[in-house]
Amino acid sequence: MKALVYEGPGKKTWTEVPDPAITDPRDAIIQVDTTTICGTDLHILGGDVPEVKPGRILGHEAVGTVVDVGDAVTELRPGDRVLASCISACGRCHYCRRARYGQCLGGGGWILGHRVDGVQAQYARLPLADLSTHRLTPEIGDEAAVLLADILPTSYEVGVLAGRVKPGDTVVVVGAGPIGLAAILTARLYSPANVIAIDTAEARLQAARRFGADVTASPEDDPSEVVRSLTGGFGADVVIEAVGLPETFELCATLIRPCGHLANIGVHGRSATLHLEELWIRDVTITTGLVDTFSTPDLLTMLSGGRLDTGPMITHRFALDDIEQAYEVFADPARSGALKVALNRS
């Protein structure tokens, strides 16, 4: 089969590799029908995730058709159409028993495209398949579902829920890429008074308005003043960091009001300064985290019921064989206007 193989920082190749095989009775093999590219994949290529070694097949978001299952798999059968979660779970360890699947000690957590081969390929092996997949109903299309593999639950859990968004809040989302847009979309579920999006690209600010941002601002607009003017000088109740750069995290810390929440979603490859000399007295809560995907069933129900409209998130479509071109488009959103790209089996 063909797959996208990481060959070291800045290097990747769509090339022939051996077909995946069941190596554990809890495995399933899927034919990949739709996959996508994540900002985390770009961080890997940038050298920000050194745990990923050359030779690894990238990708952790896919919808596929089951073609084979191990003897211990009880919930899946060949022919089932499934969403492959970005997080795998053993279901038995200390963290899984607390629904903290991202920290799984039993061989799960974020492993696809990280510690085991991923899903940017024609076929993929899914470890711990019973608890790491979701069967899809016919009314949910592949492109809508694939957005629930990672970015929707990540934004919802690590951003909105960890930030404790509640009715009447002022919510600031720094970074209006796909993760930030998903944070805006899911924050609206809680009826905030204002959602403010901050980004450097006008195209992404326009997208933020389409996804429900009430106010948008660029760094040139003095975000601190924008937020103060909308909150009587208090600052935001919740600030969500959705970029992963030191300067964006440090900006977020200036926008939060006393007793507020700063929820970091972004993947950071460099140190950021935490000004505790200013924050210690303000009763600010700062959270970080890897998604657990405990919310995926609820998000699928909302998607099926028409409560979430993820369609506008996909801006570009490619055949799976054109994945290298898709990376070029996704990695240059200022030129391409790309949000999420869908890669479909030909």
From TrEMBL:
Pfam families: ADH_N (PF08240), ADH_zinc_N (PF00107). Gene3D superfamilies: Medium-chain alcohol dehydrogenases, catalytic domain, NAD(P)-binding Rossmann-like Domain. Residues 8-343 form the Enoyl reductase (ER) domain. Keywords: Metal-binding, Oxidoreductase, Zinc. PROSITE patterns: ADH_ZINC. InterPro entries: ADH-like_C (IPR013149), ADH-like_N (IPR013154), ADH_Zn_CS (IPR002328), ER (IPR020843), GroES-like_sf (IPR011032), NAD(P)-bd_dom_sf (IPR036291). Its cofactor is Zn(2+). The keyword Signal does not apply. The keyword Iron-sulfur does not apply. Belongs to the zinc-containing alcohol dehydrogenase family. This is Zinc-dependent alcohol dehydrogenase family protein. The lineage of its organism: Bacteria, Bacillati, Actinomycetota, Actinomycetes, Streptosporangiales.
